[in-house]
């Protein structure tokens, strides 16, 4: 851990000497390789001790140092997300999705966190959010979102209160029938019943309901919501359901999208899913594109004039291929 702290200190540079947007690692193959290996192979528990040791040795909070320069520096951004404790990291990502772009909300990122995390983790994220920002996540979502996604996301956020307990298959079968009736029994969709059900079942139970639905009726629930009578509610619910049911496909689709935040999305997804389902995401991405995440990373950070791009690429590729 002492070596890790020394490497960070040697490599971080100073804002006064190198400019406010720099977090430039030192030159030399040994330091480059050591830095990449540290960010690839250390886990969140080890990073916690590294941060504590750094503070003791150098009298600074390394997370604050990196946070101040992460906006326009991909290496600083990757380092910051990698070192931050997961629930704190997700709480910050959610906060930025709600308040980071002025009056607009980044719904894709909010859905990504709220719907891909197990209910037990989501409960911890809500607690971290309250502690970190002295604010209630559900209340902030209610305040900031005006679209139909509000009700759906609120149901998901409320459902994590019921995170304990095993999956009940009998209940899942009954709930699947309830969903079918809510969609098929009338001229319009019974949105209230669907929202109520989502708000009362944790993520594991919802996945069991969706599986039961397919077993009973021969098709995915999300396909049933494509009917014209489902309208905008159906479109929005399908996005959320797909993220809950097949998060690897949701992330792969995010990575295929071409927009100004491509680097941020790539860094965030690889780092936050690196010890969870990054290999599944890689397979889903390859199935749609014929290319791998490693190739995507190398294309995005292919800049021989900027050593930091090589280091970011090394970290992300290492996380993608880590066993």
Automatic annotation (TrEMBL):
Gene3D superfamilies: Annexin (1.10.220.10). The keyword Mitochondrion does not apply. InterPro entries: Annexin, Annexin_repeat, Annexin_sf, AnnexinD_plant. Coiled coil: none annotated. Ca(2+) binds at residues 258, 300. GO terms for cellular component: cytoplasm; plasma membrane. One of its GO terms (molecular function) is phosphatidylserine binding. Keywords: Annexin, Calcium, Calcium/phospholipid-binding, Metal-binding, Repeat. GO terms for biological process: response to cold; response to heat; response to salt stress; response to water deprivation. SMART domains: ANX (SM00335). Pfam families: Annexin. This is Annexin. It comes from Lithocarpus litseifolius.
């Amino acid at each position: 851990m002492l070596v890790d702290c020394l490497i960070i200190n040697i490599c971080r540079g100073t804002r006064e000497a190198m400019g406010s947007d720099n977090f430039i690692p030192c030159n030399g193959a040994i330091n480059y390789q050591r830095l990449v290996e540290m960010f690839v192979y250390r886990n969140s528990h080890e990073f916690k001790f590294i941060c504590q040791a750094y503070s003791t040795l150098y009298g600074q909070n390394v997370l604050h140092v990196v946070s101040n320069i992460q906006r326009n520096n991909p290496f600083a951004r990757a380092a910051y997300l990698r070192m931050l404790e997961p629930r704190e990291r997700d709480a910050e990502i959610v906060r930025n999705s709600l308040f980071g772009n002025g009056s607009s909300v980044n719904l894709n990122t909010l859905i990504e966190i709220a719907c891909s995390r197990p209910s037990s983790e989501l409960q911890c994220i809500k607690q971290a959010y309250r502690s970190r920002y002295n604010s209630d996540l559900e209340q902030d979502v209610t305040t900031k979102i005006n679209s139909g996604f509000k009700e759906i996301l609120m149901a998901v956020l409320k459902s994590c209160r019921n995170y304990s307990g095993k999956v009940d298959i009998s209940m899942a079968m009954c709930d699947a029938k309830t969903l079918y009736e809510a969609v098929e029994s009338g001229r319009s969709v019974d949105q209230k019943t669907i929202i109520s059900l989502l708000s009362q079942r944790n993520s594991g139970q919802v996945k069991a309901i969706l599986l039961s639905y397919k077993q009973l009726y021969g098709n995915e629930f999300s396909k049933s919501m494509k009917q014209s009578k489902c309208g905008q509610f159906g479109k929005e619910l399908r996005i959320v359901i797909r993220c809950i049911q097949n998060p690897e496909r949701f992330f792969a689709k995010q990575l295929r999208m071409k927009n100004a935040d491509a680097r941020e999305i790539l860094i965030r997804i690889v780092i936050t899913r690196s010890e969870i389902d990054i290999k599944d995401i890689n397979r889903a991405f390859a199935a749609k594109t014929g290319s791998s995440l490693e190739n995507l990373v190398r294309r995005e950070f292919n800049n021989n004039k900027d050593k930091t791009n090589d280091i970011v690429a090394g970290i992300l590729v290492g996380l993608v291929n880590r066993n």
